[in-house]
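User: I'm writing a short report section on ligand binding and want a predicted complex to refer to. Could you take this sequence and pyridoxal-5'-phosphate and write out the structure as tokens? A short remark afterwards would be nice.
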Amino acid sequence: MNIIEKDKEYIASTYNRFPVHLVRGKGSLVYDENGKEYIDMGSGIGVTSFGIADEEWQKAIAAQAAQLQHTSNLYYTSPCVILAGKLCEKTGMSKVFFSNSGAEANECAIKAARKYAADKKGKDYYTVITLRNSFHGRTLTTLSATGQEHYHELYTPLTPGFAHVEAGNIEELRKTALETKAAAIIMECVQGEGGVIALDKDFVKSVAEFARENDIILIIDEVQTGNGRSGMFYSYMNYGIKPDVVSTAKGLAGGLPLGATLLGEKVKDVFGFGDHGSTFGGNPVCCAAAVSIIDRIDDALLEDVREKSRIIFEEFKDAPGVESVSGMGLMVGIKTVKPAGDVVKECMNKGVLCLTAKDKVRLLPALNIPADTLKKAIAIIKESLNP
Ligand SMILES: *Cc1c(COP(=O)(O)O)cnc(C)c1O
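Assistant: Sure. The structure tokens for the complex follow:
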């Protein structure tokens, strides 16, 4: 049996994989078992921030693995402390809780907000307002937060205490938040799985102002948009707002599992001993990997991300077969005349790996994708757009 057949036999059938067996890579290039080369325009859904098998990242992991790979959270270790300090320094947030995924980072954010509201306003202030078309994860609670019905259907009853409102409709948000005694509002500044849609600037600012006036915790989900992807360290920085809580994961550790919930001044001490926890959270190897990533997301890199973003937008916006281009930074959605799935398949045949989001082709290349590799990928994607 080959790997594809074995996978179908032994791996739960939740993933409709492409018939490609990837075995290795370097930077923005990956290779399948037959040695076929692909340009990676998806980076494992925005995870491999500096590409595959990046040298600096490898060294950080190897050094930490040779020293200490896990201790449990019963003891002090330094990589998580160093990483938390850097994250707080870059954001002005106050404390960090580490977990292992985006969903867990959001779970912690929701718990923090509920506890803050219960302590401060009373137990009936628990509702979390989220946006329709959002995506916040696959656990039962983060599914509840996710504003897309089709994710809910199979798993009812979901966690109660969530209300969904339309992105861009500040009146609906205000009314719903006040009526439901909201504890928190959670949103992605650029909805990723929902179709790579950047929220309107005035809307985001109004939400932040409303949240502050009413002492409602504002959580920004930076799981996909974070860690340089948007062209700023976190996407909310493009909007001139200051959230109370930030959740992040995907690109944070460059390909190892790590989630982080950044707690602002209001909620930094909301958790006491035993109020929350994670066996693997803050794992030394994952945190050492993240430090090697975070240290390189400086102004020069961010400017480079924005420049490559301009190139992608410019190349696609009037290209034949393209209806529209959306997104921010190196998080781009292309609405194509031809079905997005067909474009992705054709790109794959021609040696470029792309993603989809709803009815769009989604591009999330490594932050350091070389300019000539990017140009080559763009040319191949363009060739694949013709109906
Ligand atoms: C991917 C994603 C999540 C879930 O992250 P997991 O690591 O898969 O749990 C949550 N929020 C957003 C915005 C995401 O893109």
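A remark for your report: The two ends are 37 Å apart (CA to CA). The chain is about 35% helix and 20% strand.
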